[in-house]
Design brief:
The complex is a heterodimer of chains A (105) and B (505). Chain A is mainly α and 105 residues long. Chain A has seven helices and two strands, in the order αααβαβααα. Chain B folds into four domains: 77 residues, no CATH class; 128 residues, no CATH class; 200 residues, no CATH class; 61 residues, no CATH class. Classes of the chains: A mainly alpha (105), B alpha+beta (505).
């Protein structure tokens, strides 16, 4: 029997936002309207639970653009599966922040 | 640069992030700070692009940086090695002990802040209180009401020198008192013989004289509470003269509220000499206080004695002499009595054994075993004052409850409180891991009730620290009568990574 993932609406919204292409903290804040004190701890919780992964960008890219290195986030396989379950639980998520596939179309 | 501009500036924002970084565990601090500083750079650029002209920061950036504290605190709280997390972790022994200690402290503070409850736990204010008795008819409940006729007092004063060294009378009456510069106030006045304060060892001034050189017939002592409430703590009224019940009375002083622990609510005391007190009707009732004569065989009176007086019809009237010291100790005596009764009746309400804990090949150090018993004893030691103070708070803190009713309330509350507390302590101890003392979790039903005679059937709980499993039988049988603990060896450690990191295994 598969375990039902338990995420709050806020966590599910952040997971969905990262999946929609907002791959760093400030971008998630802008897309969701949530404050930094909510977004960053939630992303750490999602990372601890193995739903997202963080990765520092390459030094050369940051050097070329003359800015500090940035940390990017992406969903893991478990994160994608959880997000699909969350879409059933919170159907309005997809309307709030459109999926990348929908955006591209 | 003004303060607001400075707080929104880039150096201030970086300073906020550096401060928040101190909350982050050391091994993650550098990476955490790098991520937040990079984000800050992007946030800064974002708002700079939006502003026209020279950009020196905005409140949104400061608010963004303040969010770092929440993030840092979350990281700190998630660190299984962090001591406060281990102390305040749900179900930990330290959390349980701290909660009990906090409740006990709160009960004590409440007790000290409620005048009635504070009076109940304080020792008797009267020096040499063992020899002091109240004389009444009808035991403790009778002692709360004025039951002694004035004529009886008059006759005892003359004929009981063998029993008492001194005897005093007082009678609470309601009288309106008028003092210059103040509105009249209706006070409950204890009309008393002038030796009352001397008997109680309360400080009094020598009898002052009026302008003609004659001493005043009566002196009025106000309680501190009445002095503040009705006369605004006016110092000028001390030494002034007023008229009560048709006689000139000198307002002689103020007496601390704590000094009065005798029956009857009294706002002021009117001390009268024998001649004036004798005007009271013979059949009016009041309270009588006396000092017992001590002898070598009975150096002090501690308790209750009966006095038989031959009445007018030839029958013996019984009166009770109750020691003031014993009255003051009554709340403590009730507490002690209920504690003993609760301990005696506890085995009738719950099983006392804590379960079967097998020997563990010497793995469980003696310190862990000692910790288990120290924790159990600590819970008992904290629960006893918690229950007794709470019962005193409720019984004596409620305004308007008669002293007798308060004693019954204390009796009932402390007995049931002790019983409930002791049952909870034993049940709580049974649900804890004997190694780390955390509350066991994840209950799982094992076996089927229909197969009770063929296989084990009951509930299984696990220690989150990976120390073992607790088996609780659904129906006690001859081979499994009580709960049984099963230690897990180190090979199970991989299933409990957080406990491994925290050093619990």
């Amino acid at each position: 029997m598969a375990l039902e993932p338990k995420l709050s609406h806020t966590a599910a919204m952040i997971l969905h936002t990262i999946h929609a292409g907002h791959i760093y903290g400030f971008s998630v804040m802008e897309a969701t309207g949530l404050p930094s004190g909510t977004v960053y701890p939630a992303m750490r919780r999602l990372e601890r639970d193995g739903l997202i992964l963080s990765k520092w960008e390459q030094q050369s890219i940051a050097d070329a653009e003359q800015r500090p290195l940035r940390k990017y986030y992406k969903l893991t396989r478990a994160g994608v599966a959880t997000l699909q379950a969350m879409h059933k639980r919170y159907p309005l998520l997809q309307k709030m922040i459109p999926d990348p596939q929908v955006k591209n179309a | 640069m003004n303060t607001r501009l400075f707080l929104c500036s880039l150096p201030a924002s970086i300073f906020i992030l550096r401060c928040a970084a101190w909350l982050v565990p050391g091994r993650e601090r550098a990476e955490w700070l790098a991520e937040w500083q990079a984000e800050l750079w992007h946030v800064w650029q974002h708002y700079r692009r939006q502003s026209a002209g020279c950009f020196r920061g905005c409140p949104e950036i400061t608010s963004f940086c303040l969010g770092a504290f929440r993030d840092a605190f979350w990281l700190r709280w998630s660190d299984p090695r962090w001591l406060p997390r281990r102390v305040f972790r749900t179900g930990s022994a330290s959390r349980c002990s701290l909660c009990l200690a906090a409740w006990t402290a709160m009960s004590l503070l409440l007790c000290l802040s409620l005048p009635g409850a504070r009076k109940a736990i304080q020792p008797s204010p009267y020096r040499d209180g063992d020899g002091l008795v109240t004389i009444s008819s009808g035991g403790y409940s009778g002692a709360q009401l004025p039951t002694i006729h004035f004529r009886d007092y008059q006759s005892w004063r003359a004929g009981t020198q063998r029993l008492f060294t001194d005897i005093a009378f007082y009678q609470p009456i309601l009288k309106r008192v008028h003092v210059a510069h103040h509105r009249g106030a209706e006070l409950s006045i204890g009309r008393a013989s002038d030796n009352l304060f001397k008997l109680l060892n309360l400080p009094t001034l020598p009898k002052p004289v009026d302008g003609s050189g004659a001493p005043y017939d009566a002196r009025l002592f106000l309680s501190q509470d009445a002095w503040h409430r009705f006369f605004g703590a006016d110092l000028r009224m001390i030494g002034s003269v007023t008229e009560i019940a048709g006689q000139r009375v000198l307002i002689a002083g103020v007496v601390s509220q704590e000094s009065w622990q005798l029956p009857g609510r009294v706002d002021a005391w009117l001390l009268e000499d024998g001649q004036h007190l004798a005007r009271l009707p013979a059949n009016s009732t009041g309270f009588v206080l006396a000092r017992m004569r001590t002898s070598r065989s009975s150096p002090s009176l501690d308790g209750w004695r009966s006095m038989y007086v031959r009445g007018e019809g030839g029958s013996n009237d019984r009166f009770d002499c109750i020691s003031l010291a014993q009255r003051a100790r009554l709340p403590f005596s009730i507490f002690l009595f209920t504690l003993i009764v609760a301990l005696v009746t506890l085995p009738a309400t719950t099983a006392l054994p804590l379960g079967e804990y097998p020997r563990h090949n010497g793995r469980l150090p003696w310190a862990d075993r000692a910790r288990q018993w120290i924790f159990l004893s600590g819970k008992f030691l904290l629960a006893v004052p918690l229950v007794s103070l709470t019962s005193v708070d409720v019984a004596y803190g409620i305004h308007g409850l008669s002293p007798t009713a308060a004693q019954y309330v204390e009796l009932a509350l402390s007995y049931f409180g002790f019983l409930f507390a002791f049952r909870w302590i034993l049940q709580d101890q049974r649900k804890r891991c004997p190694t780390c003392l955390r509350v066991l979790s994840n209950p799982a039903r094992v076996g089927q009730a229909s197969r009770n005679f063929l296989a084990w059937n009951g509930t299984e709980l696990i220690c989150a620290g990976g120390h073992g499993l607790l088996h609780i039988p659904e129906i006690p049988t001859s081979w499994f009568s009580t709960q049984r603990w099963l230690y897990l060896d180190a090979s199970w450690g991989s299933l409990f990574p957080e406990a491994h990191i925290a050093g619990l295994i």
